[in-house]
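**Archive record**
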Amino acid sequence: MKKLLFTLLFLCSSAFADQSTENASVYSQHLADKNSLPEIESVNEFNFREYYKWTDADTNREYAFLALNFIDWRQTTYIAKHPHEYGESNPFFSTSHPSESEVNWFFASTTIMHPLISMALTPEYRKYWQYFTITFTGLAVANNARLGIKIEF
């Protein structure tokens, strides 16, 4: 769980790195002229709603991730129910044989956190975040299916 939190913090902090660099250069320009102060009006004119605009493509990518995440959840629950046949290779679990409650806690958390992180990112970084997580989860689902791990309800 600690690895998950550190990964999420890293991804969120790197998403805002370009913005803070841009703001720092604007601020340093104002510092060069000691008689001027930063213009408050430019901050008020910035349209956050337009900058973080959510598109239909974002929604479709989020649905794709959530569908794959649900399949992975069911496959991982199957692994937890059959610890003598299969092992879990996800590094976010404490052991290769997680309990059902640990599996449920992990996937419920990712189901809630993924859309929230996606909404917090700018459109450019959001797209990369969503494609990365879709690819990673899709590969895990495909590998589980290749190993014969079933989806049970």
Notes: DSSP finds seven helices and no strands in the chain. Helices lie at 2-15, 17-32, 40-45, 48-51, 56-81, 100-120, 123-146.
